[in-house]
User: What shape does this take?
Amino acid sequence: MIGCAPVPPSPEQRLIVLGYPKVTTCRFPATHLLTNGDLNANHDALEGALALCADKVDTLINGQERNDAQARILTQSPQ
Assistant: This one.
C-alpha cells in the first residue's frame, strides 16, 4: 500500500496469572483419650497438624506478596 512502511513487531506480551495454590482445609486429629500416653500422642499429632496448616497459610501469604510486588512493577510509570 502507498504510505505504509515496515515497522518493528510489537513487543512480546507476558502472560500474568493471578492465582493461588489450591487450599484444603486444615484437619486436626480426632481424640479419644484414655491415658496420659494417649494425651502425649495426641499432643504430638496436633503439633504436626498445626505445622501443616501454618505451611498452607504461609504459602498463600507468600503468593499474595509476590503478586502484589509484580503488580507494583507492572503499574509503575516509565521514567
The mean pLDDT is 83.
